[in-house]
């Protein structure tokens, strides 16, 4: 009887140890799973952050590229504008030279003055009163004209 009791106790202890061992194994596996899940979450967050950084960098590069392109276009437009301005100045100076040459070729009029076309709108005005602007009675006027 004692032997059977003793055997039962030993059997119970073995079962308890086995249950404790299995419980310990389950706890350890649950902890490992939790750590693995945590590491996976951290890796996913890191990948997400890297992806966002890459996207931001790509957007920034795109904007910088657009800025560079805009800058190049602006510089080209400025250069073209300066070139056109120089061309216009060159043309103007060529025209001025041509007109100077033309005026030099034009014969001088016999009375020393070129004929100026009269503005017809001036003829429509009423005649001015005939008063002498040069008065000898005011010495101030004569002084200013000397």
TrEMBL record:
<feature type="compositionally biased region" description="Polar residues">
    <location>
        <begin position="92"/>
        <end position="103"/>
    </location>
</feature>
<feature type="compositionally biased region" description="Basic and acidic residues">
    <location>
        <begin position="28"/>
        <end position="90"/>
    </location>
</feature>
<feature type="compositionally biased region" description="Basic and acidic residues">
    <location>
        <begin position="1"/>
        <end position="19"/>
    </location>
</feature>
<feature type="region of interest" description="Disordered">
    <location>
        <begin position="1"/>
        <end position="146"/>
    </location>
</feature>
<protein>
    <recommendedName>
        <fullName>CCDC66 domain-containing protein</fullName>
    </recommendedName>
</protein>
<feature type="compositionally biased region" description="Low complexity">
    <location>
        <begin position="130"/>
        <end position="140"/>
    </location>
</feature>
């Amino acid at each position: 009887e004692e032997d059977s009791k003793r055997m039962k106790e030993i059997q119970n202890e073995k079962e308890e140890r086995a249950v404790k061992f299995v419980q310990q194994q389950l706890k350890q596996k649950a902890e490992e799973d939790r750590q693995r899940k945590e590491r996976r979450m951290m890796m996913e967050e890191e990948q997400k952050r890297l992806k966002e950084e890459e996207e931001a960098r790509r957007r920034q590069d795109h904007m910088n590229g657009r800025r560079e392109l805009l800058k190049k276009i602006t510089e080209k437009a400025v250069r073209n504008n300066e070139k056109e301005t120089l061309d216009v100045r060159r043309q103007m100076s060529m025209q001025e030279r041509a007109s100077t040459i033309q005026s030099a070729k034009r014969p001088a009029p016999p009375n020393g003055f070129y004929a100026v076309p009269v503005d017809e709108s001036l003829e429509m005005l009423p005649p001015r009163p005939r008063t002498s602007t040069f008065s000898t009675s005011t010495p101030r006027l004569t002084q200013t004209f000397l």
